[in-house]
Amino acid sequence: MQVNIKNLIDDTQCYDTVRELRWPEGRDCPFCDSRRVIRRGFDEKESARQRYECKKCGKRFDDLTGTIFSGHHQPLKVWILCLYFMGLNLSNEQIAKELELNRSDVHQMASQLREGVVKKNRK
Ligand SMILES: [Zn+2]
Question: What is the DSSP letter of 118?
Answer without folding.
Answer: B
